[in-house]
Design goal:
The complex is a heterodimer of chains A (about 180) and B (about 100).
Chain A: H1 4-8, H2 13-42, H3 46-72, H4 92-120, H5 123-152, H6 158-166
Helix pairs in contact in A: 2-3, 2-4, 4-5
Chain B: E1 2-6, E2 11-15, E3 20-24, E4 29-32, H1 34-45, H2 49-54, E5 61-66, E6 71-76, H3 77-103
Antiparallel strand pairs in B: 1-2, 2-3, 3-4, 5-6
The chains are: A mainly alpha (about 180), B alpha+beta (about 100).
Bound molecules: fe (ii) ion (FE2) (2 copies).
């Protein structure tokens, strides 16, 4: 019997399913960050708002990267439905903590797919995912830098405003060498 | 045509000659390209059988449109269970075949 699947698809079917799940997760991240941006905007924390607007776009970029990869390799990518987006937060600190938790769970999920690729000898996808492994490491570090600001600075009165102004500096590109 | 998997009511085949997949639904045979076969698998995977038993899906039917809207099917709970078995079994068979082909 001919291997028709391999003729059409250069990635593994099970891996393709996991990538589609990952597409949903990236889309959810994008929406979650958008909700955080909105909260920050309403609470006059404009630097954090901008930070999350940018993050939201980045997550959409991640989603599209995987989406195209699945389709380019003969699979079918499914446009995700996004549900359960949280809009209520009690503080800016809680937002950054939630953001870090979210990134950690995305890292875990990427690692799970890499693990699956190794098990199934899907080197194409494993190689593709290496970019995400590195990206996740950077994203986690960035969120930790945000939380460090809370440890260093007070959030009473003007403190929160000053902290917000420091937010652009947590981006890798804005760090001193 | 080679049998991929036989479930209750339905049988799936692979046709090497036309590089396509065929499902015999009993009263009708439908040919799928690989993409369409993947799409059908997705639809079947998304059938929530628990809704058939919780009463949420009152009539117990699933309406499915296949192959760029060329075909429409109505499946009852029994048939939905059989479809899940059919697609699962077929893709397992295809995977085995890939492993075999790669080792030759
Ligand atoms: Fe991401
Ligand atoms: Fe991220």
């Amino acid at each position: 019997m001919k291997d028709l699947v391999r003729q059409k698809l250069s990635i593994h079917v099970e891996v393709m399913d996991m990538l589609n799940k990952q597409i949903e997760k990236e889309a959810h991240s994008s929406s979650a960050y958008l909700a955080m941006a909105s909260w920050c905007d309403h609470n006059a924390l404009s630097y954090s708002a901008q930070f999350f607007y940018d993050q939201s776009l980045e997550e959409r970029g991640h989603m599209m990267k995987i989406f195209r990869f699945v389709n380019d390799n003969g699979g079918t990518a499914y446009s995700p439905e996004v549900k359960n987006v949280i809009h209520d937060f009690k503080s800016l600190e809680e937002i950054y903590e939630t953001a870090l938790d979210q990134e950690i769970s995305i890292t875990q999920s990427i690692h799970n797919i890499v693990q699956k690729c190794r098990k199934l000898n899907d080197f194409t996808t494993e190689n593709f995912l290496q970019w995400f492994v590195k990206e996740q490491m950077e994203e986690e570090q960035m969120m930790r830098r945000a939380l460090e600001l809370f440890d260093l600075m007070g959030t009473d009165g003007l403190g929160l405003k000053l902290l917000d102004e420091r937010i652009p500096q947590i981006r890798e590109s804005n760090l001193p060498d | 045509m080679k049998v991929l998997h036989q479930a209750q009511h339905f049988t799936a085949y692979q046709c090497d000659h036309s590089r396509a997949f065929v499902i015999d639904f009993g009263h009708k045979q439908v040919t799928f390209t690989f993409c369409q076969f993947l799409a059908f698998r997705h639809q079947v995977k998304n059938i929530d059988l628990s809704k058939h038993f919780s009463g949420e899906n009152k009539h117990g039917f699933e309406i499915m449109v296949l192959c760029n809207r060329k075909h429409i099917f109505i499946f009852n709970t029994h048939e939905c269970i059989a479809l899940k078995d059919l697609l699962k079994g077929s893709f397992t068979m295809l995977e085995l075949n890939s492993v075999l082909a790669a080792s030759l």
